[in-house]
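Co-fold these.
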Amino acid sequence: MIAIYPGSFDPITFGHLDIIDRGAKLFDSVIVAVLSNPSKKPLFSVEQRVEQIRYCTSHLANVKVDSFTGLTVDYAKLRDAKVLLRGLRVLSDFEKELQMAHTNSTLWTEIETVFLATAKEYSFLSSSVVKEIAQFGGAIDHLVPANIVRDICNYYQNKT
Ligand code: ADP
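Predicted complex below.
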């Protein structure tokens, strides 16, 4: 069974990578799909995010990385995948995630959203937390892989 793990991943964190690792053990293959959302202003371009995620998941043979625009269910149909993989952190994720799962199943009844509970050490971790710390020069190497630390440092150094 193929699962799609859709998200912004701006940037990918150890929390996301934990979900990918565990998803790769549960499904035949996992496609990490970077959403290109024109209404959001991301730190990294879609191409950069795809490259970053490829680098961090290269040890996982059944994980592929791609990008998409538009509706997640349309992308899932295109890839012949009937499972959407999502991570659940704190209670505040729940409402949004449940709404999204129900909406997606009204768009395509065959789609199932599977939630993996976050590893407890990453339950506070989000891409925005990483960016907030990094822009003030704080340490982020316990939150994201080394290639992301490097890319974020470069980004903020070039900005100043
Ligand atoms: P989106 O903009 O779609 O919420 P994100 O990149 O923020 O994209 O997250 C993608 C998915 O990964 C979501 O299901 C989110 O709940 C989950 N996720 C994000 N951070 C973590 C984490 N630290 N632990 C587990 N799941 C996470």
